[in-house]
Amino acid sequence: MCGIVSYVGEEPKATRLLLQGLKSLEYRGYDSSGIALLNDTLSVYKNKGKILDLEKSLSTLSDEEREKLDQSICGIGHTRWATHGEPSDINAHPHMDSDGTIAVVHNGIIRNYIKLKKELIYKGYTFKSDTDTEVIANLFSYIRKDLIAKGEYEDFLAMRLLSSRLEGSYALAILLNESVNPNTTQPAKRILLAKHESPLVIGVGQSENFAASDSDTVLQFTDSIIRLADREFAVISKNTIDIQDFEGNMIKPVIEVLKKNDSLMDKKGYKHFLLKEINEQPTVLSKMLSLIEDSTYENFKLINFNINFAEIEKIYCIACGSAYHSAQALKYILGSWCSLPVDVIVASEFNFQHKLIGERDLLIGVSQSGETADTILALQKAKSAGARLLAITNRPASAINNLCGANTYITPADLEISVASTKAYTSQLMAHYLLALQIATARKAISREFFTDILHNLKTLPVLLDQMLNRANHYKAAAVNFAGYRDFIFLSRGINHTTAMEGALKLKELSYAHASAYPSGELKHGPIAILDENVPVISIAIPSIYPDEQIIYEKIIHNALEAKTRKSPSILLTTDSNQDHVEEFDLVMRIPDIDQLFSPILATIPLQFLAYFIAENLGKDVDQPRNLAKSVTVE
């Protein structure tokens, strides 16, 4: 959560670059934002709201203040997702110490901040905000003053002493205003950085250097980056980059040259990034299918994982949010194809089960950003227990990739700008099908004929998905009819229970309506009590040629009609050719004909459109819904 950007150079462009960087980081949080600039004095500008609100407030400054902005060559910036303290001007970052000589921006959570705050108040420090970050500023001030008084001040020593007192996760950027530089070996205009369980990268330029929470932000300014590892500090000036670990060992920087992706921030003519990303899904899935390393039955490989799948006795899938929903599909597929036990666990709950993990177990971590704190912690615990690790993400430059190495599958979805996941979710679904196919063939669990049928169906999905995008106006008309409702129930069974959960989540995220998803057989076990003419029920019922799945379809229809008898407005999501009971529903949304087993990717699209058009009709902020952030990097 939260986004950090920093700049130090020789040209007066800090303000412009910080604001530009913050805009690309806004997916990480947008409750408030701010910048701190180091000239002859240290100046902080911050306010509640998005980056646009910050820009507006900067435009109202006096001519003297504007000149200070225009001449700045060193600064730090932050866009916030609130954890400690409500979104407000006071709680916005950067935070300063009591003397106004230190500015800090922070991503993460300091668990012992209340204890530290009490100690610092006793020592005479004052606090203005409710945040844990202001504690860091005052604690660093205390440490710095003490070292200066002893004649021992040095940046890395001060950072080590700071980190020894902090419990939790943090990425930090710190500015110091020094009338007399106590460390004559360092330039006055420099930025101190620290990374511990929160992402932070350095951008290497010519007579200028950068730092940010992700590599895409840095790539706007330079193609050369240094990835800080956990428990590392850095001090950057316009011409120097020094790195040290928490134990005091100097680290030789490893510079990577990355390819810029300028298209990520381009809406390509679409009204919203969300709509653009919905429309990118056929291309993403086609690319995934084209990148399969070996598509033969004898040696099918999504990629060459360093895992003997034939030895695996149990699989645990660890994920959060939409990734958790996608993992439910993998559980269903592997259970059906391989009779292999799979537990899907919300990552934050894994702490209660990790002691059950053994050496013949496989733990699969699924994370769009690759930085999800709970998922990474679960993977680390499983690794220490001797389990095999595998990760699915669409971010190559991520902590989860660093942890799982060659056993990481990078989907080609790229970064989503819209907070609500669309193409990342469907790419995870496709990854699960392909991974399950690799596991099934490695274990000789399916026949050659069934393998051929599976691959054929998967290869048709991008084409069918492309056709579905032309139905957007049909889905829009359906959405308008239901924009006034504030409570929804989503029903399905089997593999499309994951579709119901994801559909409900999208509607909640985008429109702020309450939406719940249930296996349709659970309707009579409580949820039926809330049904009336004000609670629409959306039933996902896809026929199947396989007898077991067709029984599931029939039961979904039966449960949906039970809801209809309670006067709930009823929506059926089914295939083009299916006419079974359709006249009994108020609205029928359709997808191209496909078997139930392979339908979740297609069935998700109308629900993405439904949530999008309802939110648009209600005037909601589609790309940046309230209270949300794209990457959840704190527990």
What does this structure look like?
With 635 residues, this protein is of the alpha/beta class. The protein contains 18 helices and 25 strands. Strands 3-2-4-1-10-9-11-15 form an eight-stranded antiparallel sheet. The protein has a seven-stranded antiparallel sheet with strand order 5-6-7-8-12-13-14. A hairpin with a 3-residue loop joins strand 9 and strand 10. Helix 5 packs across helix 6 (155-165), helix 10 packs antiparallel against helix 16 (497-511) and helix 15 packs across helix 18. It starts with a strand and ends in an 18-residue tail after the last helix.
Considering the chains and any ligands shown, give keywords for the structure.
about 625 residues, seven-stranded antiparallel sheet, globular, 18 helices, alpha/beta, eight-stranded antiparallel sheet, about 20% strand
